UniProtKB/TrEMBL annotation:
Signal peptide: 1-26
Domain of life (superkingdom): Bacteria
Keywords: Membrane, Signal, Transmembrane, Transmembrane helix
The UniProt record lists the keyword Transmembrane: yes
Provenance organism: Heyndrickxia camelliae
Transmembrane parts of this sequence: 116-146, 166-189, 195-217, 229-245, 251-270
Name the UniProt record assigns to this protein: Uncharacterized protein
Length: 279
């Protein structure tokens, strides 16, 4: 119940801030002002919300104290039983003052503003980059599927589909390729080979995405009789959406990468053994 009252107080603060209400909204339990506010020593109130001015607390506040664009003075006779939030001002608390909940102060000076702006720009850049990569991955998968005439959406004859085994194969192959790439990079002259390995891994990823997306899209009845590129687009969209899911998305992308690499390695192995058996 107490947490609900605290939350209600902060919501009330946000509503009042947005509507710029006048200071007449005050009663015996809630003090809401846009002028300097002083809570006397023996007075008990529920909330104190002051916008654009200073506040001084000498008495008891049961729920919360919120001061925006003003300073807060908490004297030694004060007893604040809820959280204290000050935005754009300073807090001065005398020794002996009782505050049982956290005190939060956000002083929006130039350094703080710059930090907020920088953080916002980094977040925006990260979001735009992720969006661009997602769209690019979607387009490449669909275009590659169309270019290969959807041959990669089905398995070759004689290929045994065991997802667990394929993922393990991809995992082991990725470790081997990583170790080989590190060794070749150290030798410097092997860097072109490393580039070829990276290109090969990317091609295997696209091939795996085409296979998974095509089969995933076919699972929906609404896609029955639809063009193959549309089925591929639907499946790829679901995969890209899952990849962008926080935390789970990274693990999902890793599993798809291992599956794709394992699928490519298994296909190459099948093709090699089939050729050797031919007279």
């Amino acid at each position: 119940m107490k947490r609900f009252r605290v939350l209600l107080s902060f919501l009330l603060m946000m509503i009042i801030s947005s509507l710029l209400l006048t200071p007449v909204l005050a009663d015996e339990k809630n003090i809401i002002n846009q002028k300097e506010t002083i809570i006397p020593k023996n007075e008990k109130v529920e909330n104190v919300i002051v916008l654009g001015n200073d506040a001084t607390i000498n008495g008891e506040v049961k729920v919360a104290v919120v001061v925006i664009n003003g300073n807060l003075q908490i004297n030694k006779t004060a007893n604040i039983k809820g959280p204290v939030l000050v935005i754009g001002g300073q807090i001065n608390q005398e020794i002996g003052a009782k505050v049982t909940e956290p005190i939060i102060s956000l002083n929006l000076n130039n350094e703080t503003k710059n930090s907020f702006i920088l953080g916002g720009l980094l977040f925006l850049a990260s979001w735009i980059t992720r969006l661009a990569i997602s769209i690019l991955l979607l387009l490449i998968t669909v275009i590659a599927g169309i270019a290969t005439k959807h041959k990669w959406t089905s398995l070759p004859e004689g290929f045994q589909m065991k997802p667990g085994k394929i993922i393990i194969t991809g995992f082991i192959s990725s470790l081997a390729l990583f170790a080989l790439s590190v060794l070749l990079t150290i030798l410097i002259i092997g860097i072109p080979i490393v580039i070829l390995i990276i290109i090969g891994v990317l091609i295997s990823l696209i091939a795996g995405l085409i296979f998974i997306s095509g089969n995933l899209g076919n699972q929906f009845r609404i896609m029955e009789g639809r063009p193959k590129w549309l089925v591929l687009l639907a499946g790829t969209s679901l995969i890209v959406a899952a990849i962008n899911f926080p935390l789970f998305g990274g693990i999902f992308l890793l599993m798809i990468s291992w599956f794709s690499l394992g699928l490519s390695v298994s296909w190459l192995h099948l093709k090699f053994t089939t050729r050797r058996k031919k007279p």
